[in-house]
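tokens incoming
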């Protein structure tokens, strides 16, 4: 074997070794993060006696799939699922609509103070929602929207992060496409819907998944604004389970929790690659 072969083989083996170490570390990290989820699923099949006397046992003995049927019969999951789903759907549609239009205005329409206004708009993202909850509650109370799903839908349709993300995608769209459409007689509205929106579908899809998960997981605002049991969302229903049933039955509580995360798991598994790719692409058009 010549020296050139040794020189080529050496770095190749080193690169493969680093790749093996990297994948090993990622697999171990994934297993660590998967552990609480696996423990929750397995514990949801345990009986109450096993959890109280042998909480560290990994496998249920015996298995109790009845926990799921008991949880479904004890809680109105059907109504809560529908409430959470249609609230999340409307939040996604309305937020994407308003954010895409605002992002196009900030990315393409030049006006005095646009940069300062955009920075000020993004700064509102740093204000915790708990700080503004009192004036928001008073405002929604005056409108008669307390104990109504409108209190969860309307305030969420303006999102600074969505505007920022979509603005980055719009800035990556070649301006020549819009100029060519303008020469053909297209106005701003036509350019936005027929040229810009189709070219930012990856960003729209990524944020749609993020917005859906955020709305489905939302607990703070439903807790503040919703009082009627028939209006409860899934997280609010699961949180009220222990209070409605006296002493906590951990098997039923974890079974109810497992049922509540099914849509989140589906959304994440379907859209995880799109989210990561879109986040990586969103910085390519900045200038």
């Amino acid at each position: 074997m010549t020296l050139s072969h040794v020189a080529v083989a050496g770095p190749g083996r080193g690169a493969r070794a680093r790749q093996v170490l990297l994948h090993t570390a990622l697999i171990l990290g994934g297993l660590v993060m998967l552990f609480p989820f696996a423990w929750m699923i397995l514990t949801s099949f345990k009986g109450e006696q096993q959890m109280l006397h042998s909480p560290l046992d990994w496998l249920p003995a015996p298995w109790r799939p009845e926990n799921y049927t008991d949880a479904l019969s004890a809680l109105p999951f059907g109504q809560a699922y529908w409430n959470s789903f249609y609230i999340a759907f409307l939040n996604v549609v309305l937020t994407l609509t308003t954010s895409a239009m605002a992002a196009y205005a900030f990315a393409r329409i030049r006006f005095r103070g646009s940069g300062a206004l955009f920075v000020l708009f993004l700064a509102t993202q740093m204000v915790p929602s708990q700080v503004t909850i009192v004036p928001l509650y008073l405002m929604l109370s005056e409108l008669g929207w307390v104990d109504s799903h409108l209190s969860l839908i309307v305030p969420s349709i303006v999102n600074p992060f969505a505007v920022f993300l979509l603005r980055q995608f719009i800035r990556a769209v070649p301006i020549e496409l819009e100029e060519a459409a303008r020469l053909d007689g297209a106005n701003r509205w036509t350019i936005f819907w027929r040229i810009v929106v189709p070219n930012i579908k990856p960003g729209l899809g990524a944020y749609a998944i993020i917005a859906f998960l955020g709305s489905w997981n939302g607990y703070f605002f439903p807790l503040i604004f919703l009082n009627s049991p028939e209006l409860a969302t899934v997280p609010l229903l699961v949180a009220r389970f222990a209070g409605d049933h006296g002493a906590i039955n951990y098997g039923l509580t974890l079974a109810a929790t497992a049922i509540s995360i099914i849509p989140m798991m589906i959304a994440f598994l379907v859209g995880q690659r799109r989210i990561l790719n879109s986040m990586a692409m969103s910085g390519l058009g900045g200038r």
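note: The mean pLDDT is 83.
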